[in-house]
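JOB MANIFEST
job_type = single_chain_structure
chain_count = 1
residues = 533
[input]
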Amino acid sequence: MENTRRSTFIDQAAVLVTAMFISRFLGFLYRMPMTHFIGDDGNAYYAAGFQIYTFFLIFSSAGLPAAISKLVSERVILKRYNDAHAVFQVAIFLAAIMGIAFSLILLFGARYISALLSQPLSYYSMLALSPTLLIVGIMAVFRGYFQGMGTTKPTAVSQIAEQIFNAGFSVLLAYLMHGYGPEFGAAGGTVGTGIGAIAGLLVMVFIYKLNSKFIHRRLKTDHLPQKESYSEIAAAVLKTAWPIILGSAVFSISGMIDTAMVSNCLKASNAFDAAQIAQLYGQYSGKYITLTTLPVVISSAMATASIPSVASSNALNDTSAVSAKINMGLRMAMLFTIPAAIGLSVLGDPILKLLFPSHPDGGALLRWGGIGVIFLALAQITTGMLQGVGRVKLPIIGAITGAVIKIILNMVLISNPAINVLGAVFSTIACYMVASAIDIFLLWHVTHARINFMSTLIKPIICAVGMGVATYGTYEAVYFLSGSNAASVILSITFGAAVYFICMLFVKGIERSDLRAVPIGRKLIRMMDSLGL
């Protein structure tokens, strides 16, 4: 039974990994042509508007998928299907109310907020994003409901559809609008976000309609009356969601503080003019943040899949299954994010030259900050695990502590002209390092799970360091022979990945279940079996 549950957890995570990888990759791809149109300064306006949108999104709906999936899974495992569906119905109502409220706040407060952040030209992006809050809130409820029902496929399909429309319309509208100024090009890009959200919501509604007969048929098998009233369920949703919202809000607030502090601290240094400040912040937000959040797709998927899965095992008091899922989630997150972190640090400048040939500046941010990917991934996965075992308030401790450290370091470092925007990178690393360390300790304290640090951290780090040396050497050799940056980057990444994979096989750092959670994992398993590995 334990193996079945573990297999289900990995299978659901694998679906999300595939979808998130495709979505993140598409999201990453469209930023390249969009950056070409709007430049680093346009990226600054886009990022500032998106930062505020994300903050309001957290309060309107970010806690709902995790809260709903947890509450629904706990009721489904006990076969209380009527109560589980009531959670969905109540959550739709709550999401609509909060979505409308925060959309109106952003719509009418955009001018004041953009001025407060010292990014007045981000006003247009905020206006364009305001109606998206309602759309995403409703979509979040559908996703949380299906995840709680034990399937991540609807979420995966809607994520891909959302990102396809988002990417296409963001680039198109940025192109059409950038002639009026980078601030309007950035606003055009944010309109694509809303169009993508509409597409994702329509997909979720369509999938719900397709499954409505099964859902209502299962409701009829629950002969017990609805045990909980709608007011009790609403209280349970809010009680579960608000700590998640608060913890997420802390990191979002620190991001908003970044938006204001980077500009103000750079200005206070008296070493940069307004255009240079916008470009530096655009490099940080549009390149460093974009590239370092791409590799954490595995940890994001594991965190999402772990909440209902761990919640179900926790509801059954199955401590061994909880422990196994914690170690599996941590190992999978680190298996991919550690080499990605080393790779970004080693190839910082060449990667930016390849991806943003017209605006290649900012490589130092990746060289110094690539390591932050590891701690961001750890913070994500441990937060999901703590939420899954019902300790939704505990991640707030790490989030607040990390945010305080980030603010202090921002003040000290960014104002130094020699460090400038790199200070935001260093403070971000410190923020997630502290938050993840606290979360790991709290997770161990609550569950008493014995975390296998050898397979989770030590083996991947050893192999990733060897990979980094091989990647750097290959890049330098190929570039010396060919003079082509693109060929050097592609060949060095390919060779480095092969070195890492072979090294992990040699130290027995990869298991069959690990490979099943990646898009081409099953093909790799068959190939390795045929080679006797």
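[summary]
The chain is about 85% helix and 0% strand.
Residues 1-7 have pLDDT under 50 and may be disordered.
exit_status = 0
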